[in-house]
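chain below, 109 aa
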Amino acid sequence: MLKPLPTSIQTFCDLINGGYLYIDKTQYLYELVRYPKGVYFLARPRRFGKSLLISTVDEIFQGNKELFKGLWLTLTAPINGSNIPSFGLISAAIALGMKQTWKYGFLAT
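prediction:
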């Protein structure tokens, strides 16, 4: 049976627990964070998976290994899922802030 396509799913946890189709990109995320150097600015076009990408990195850093069963990170990565490091992640939802700003600006005028 084919897995459903994840339309409007923005968190990795919802995507995996909902049984949606996921193209495994954990190898690329591992390469991105393996040797951290300063700050990363991830600019991508609108509706191109920024929230899902950040949610996936957040789940990795929180050490939620159950979500990554069967994915590259737990099967093939040098850490083999047994030693996923825990780090904090700072993200800013600029789009939400702009909507709230517009809404309050609209109500004030």
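The chain has a mean pLDDT of 75. The radius of gyration is 16 Å.
thats it, cya
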